[in-house]
Specification:
The protein has four helices and 13 strands. The protein is α/β, with parallel strands linked by helices.
Length: about 230
């Protein structure tokens, strides 16, 4: 689907684009594209992807890069801010460091989002860990249950900016997204009590305009996040 001034239009890459472009150069969420109508088809034809000002991507594939095929997966493009999302209850510092490095490489600005703050009596320990490993970055404590801290995130959407949420399943990306959208557009599920893990309630990337300006991209939970041209750690 391509969002236009006249609403959403079904479109797909042209045959020439499919056969002449590398996979990471094909249209991705956040791209600006040029299309041609195809009156006798159900979809329009995407003929060109306009130059990208930022590209957030990760490497995916087998854990052994010597024997497994690994490929670059474009997560989203033309992003201003990336909310790397973790719970305040259990923050994966090693993963957060990898995410921040990839975001900075992408040309976007990282913002650390800690969800479920209502479950933590004193977040000072995790905040200190983050400051020691990623000094100077902006950190926001939020709660999808109480709504605390969510309004502070709207500053990143002013001026019709684009933000994207990334993080593991069950950290609350869709819940916070729904609060910003002002409606329950994205499905959410409870996490498992015994290990705090969630299911993939978001199974595809969604690009949605925010009331009052700005664009939000929600992404499926990613079990791992591997840097491009780097070993997973």
């Amino acid at each position: 689907m391509v969002l236009t001034e006249n609403g959403s239009i079904r479109a797909e890459p042209s045959t020439d684009m499919l056969y002449t472009s590398d996979k990471e150069q094909l249209p991705a969420v956040g791209d600006w594209v040029g299309m041609l109508p195809r009156p006798r088809h159900d979809t329009d034809s995407i003929e060109v992807v306009l130059p990208r000002r930022s590209v957030l991507a990760r490497t995916r594939g087998g854990s052994d890069s010597r024997s497994a095929v690994r490929e670059i997966q474009v997560i989203a493009t033309n992003i201003d801010f990336v909310f790397t999302t973790h719970t305040a209850v259990k923050t994966n510092i090693a993963r957060l460091v990898r995410e921040v490095a990839q975001i900075e490489q992408s040309g976007s600005t990282p913002v650390i989002l800690l969800t479920k703050s209502d479950l933590v009596a004193d977040p000072s320990e995790v905040l200190e860990q983050i400051e020691n490993t990623a000094p100077g970055l902006r950190v926001h404590l939020t709660s999808g249950l109480t709504g605390d801290g969510v309004d502070e995130l709207r500053q990143y959407l002013t001026g019709n900016r684009t933000v994207v949420f990334i993080g593991a399943s069950g950290v609350g990306k869709s819940t916070i997204s729904n609060l910003l959208l002002g409606s329950e557009l994205l499905a959410t599920r409870e996490v498992r009590e015994y290990d705090g893990k969630g299911r993939h309630t978001t199974t595809a990337r969604h690009l949605m305009p925010i009331p009052g300006g700005g664009v939000l991209i929600d992404t499926p939970g990613m079990r791992t996040f591997t840097l491009q041209n780097a070993e997973e750690g």
